[in-house]
Specification:
Layout: H1 2-14, E1 20-25, H2 27-38, E2 43-49, H3 54-63, H4 65-70, H5 72-77, H6 88-91, H7 98-109, H8 113-123, E3 145-150, E4 172-177, H9 184-187, H10 189-204
Parallel strand pairs: 1-2, 2-3, 3-4
Length: 205
């Protein structure tokens, strides 16, 4: 994770900026949370889509049997040669628009499946390894946070959202969306886009 955070910090520096508005989904969200905690000087505003705070995820994996069961896909991704079971069409199966799906498939065909799964091998808790019910402390997030979560997400259950307000030392806006799943920006595109735009305009004007 420190290397991934360093990559984002390098992009901000390469753009000649001292701070950035950071918006991210899933693994991008994990990196964004960690960037905000470890480099608060770089994050002006933080927008997270369907990735609970790392403390919430760690707690649920340690204590919630349903989350443990639903994390089975991640445990499979941690196995050696797991990348050999993936293909571009399967990875793009969630995309409902035909034209968009074709672009995703083309991108995945140029990607490293093994590299993708290394995220899980390096950063996701492993099955059978005892984890503390109370995760170790992490620095508080200092920037305002807008967080979206589709409540039908089966990979990251909404119980992990509980307590987020204890880990953010600024205003937290939490938007939970019934009927939307893990890809909340697609499942509730208009609501996510209009809410995000309004939230950003109120804090940047």
């Amino acid at each position: 994770m420190p290397f991934l955070v360093g990559d984002v910090a390098a992009v901000i520096a390469a753009e000649g900026r001292e701070r950035a508005i950071v918006a991210a989904h899933d693994w991008g969200g994990a990196i964004a949370w960690n960037l905000a905690m470890s480099r608060p000087d770089l994050v002006e505003l933080l927008v997270i889509l369907n990735l609970p705070h790392p403390r919430g995820i760690a707690r649920e994996i340690a204590t919630n049997p349903v989350q443990q069961e639903n994390s089975g896909y991640a445990y499979r991704f941690q196995q050696e040669d797991a990348h050999k079971s993936l293909d571009a069409a399967g990875l793009a199966g969630w995309v409902t628009d035909d034209a968009a799906r074709a672009r995703y498939v083309a991108a995945f065909e140029q990607s490293s499946f093994e590299g993708m799964l290394n995220y899980y091998k390096a950063n996701y808790p492993r099955p059978g390894v005892a984890a503390p019910a109370t995760p170790p402390p992490m620095p508080a997030v200092k920037s305002p946070v807008l967080q979206f979560h589709g409540l039908e997400d089966q990979a990251l259950l909404p119980g992990a959202l509980s307590g987020t307000w204890d880990w953010v030392d600024a205003d937290l806006t939490l938007v939970t969306i019934p009927g939307a799943g893990h890809f909340v920006q697609q499942d509730a595109a208009e609501l996510v886009s209009t809410t995000m735009l309004d939230w950003l305009l109120r804090r940047t004007n």
